[in-house]
Amino acid sequence: MENPAAEWKLPWDGGCRCGKVRLRVTLPPIVTMACHCTGCQRMSSSAFSLTMAVPTPGFHILSGAPVVGGLHGASKHMFCDYCMTWMFTRPEGVDEFVNLRPTMLDNPGWVVPFIETFTNEKLPWATTPATHSYATLPDPSLYEGLMREFADKSPRPR
Ligand SMILES: [Zn+2]
Ligand SMILES: [Zn+2]
Predict the structure, then answer these.
(1) Residue 86 C-alpha to ligand 1 middle, in angstroms?
(2) Which family is annotated (predicted)?
(3) pTM for the full model?
(4) SS3 of 48, please?
(5) 88 Cα to the center of ligand 1, angstroms
(6) Distance of alpha carbon 21 from alpha carbon 149, whole angstroms
(7) How far apart are CA 121 and CA 142, in angstroms?
(8) In this structure, are residues 28 and 61 in contact, taking their beta carbons and an 8 Å threshold?
(9) Is 102 exposed, middle or buried (0-12, 13-18, 19+ CB in 10 A)?
(10) Which of 48, 50, 70, 95 has its CA 20 to 30 A from that of 40?
(11) Alpha helices, DSSP H only, in 1-156?
């Protein structure tokens, strides 16, 4: 990538349902995912959650102060304190990236889940166009190759 910002049309802005929390992404995503686990079904009020892993130095809160919700556990599920939109997750023990829900972006239409996880818990009718499907999670030995394939093949913003 000669000029990642141009190739990915960065920066991207986004926000919660009510607009109190606004955010900005300034670095290309690492990977995109859909998670069919029952926890994500409940927390997203839908069939699956969507994730875009954004490098932490490229993730900025512009306004508002997201609060911890969900399980209040080691992984921090972050919500708008007013409209309670589930906006992003700071995964347990991971400082390198933030898992943003890509539907927070003002222009999310180009984002396609590259990986889907926990298909063993999925609703029978729920399908996604993900390139790679896993019954639970991919083996950690696969992560590096998956991230390289995503960088090469993921659609770019239109
Ligand atoms: Zn809000
Ligand atoms: Zn999940």
Answers:
(1) 9
(2) Belongs to the Gfa family.
(3) 0.96
(4) coil
(5) 13
(6) 32
(7) 21
(8) no
(9) buried
(10) 95
(11) 4-7, 38-44, 143-153
Question: Counting ligands in written order, which one lies closest to the CA of residue 119?
Answer: 2
Task: Name residue, tokens 């007013």.
Answer: 82
Q: Which two tokens stand for residue 49?
A: 């959650």
pLDDT tens per residue, range 104-131: 999 999 999 999 999 999 999 999 999 9
Whole-number Å distance, alpha carbon 85 to ligand 1 midpoint, is: 6
CATH superfamily placement of domain 4-153: glutathione-dependent formaldehyde- activating enzyme (gfa) (3.90.1590.10)
pLDDT single digits (tens) 56-107: 999 999 999 999 999 999 999 999 999 999 999 999 999 999 999 999 999 9
Tokens coding 96: 């390198």
Contacts of 103 (CB under 8 A, 6+ apart): 50
CB contact set of 61 (below 8 Å; sequence gap of 6+): 21, 22, 23
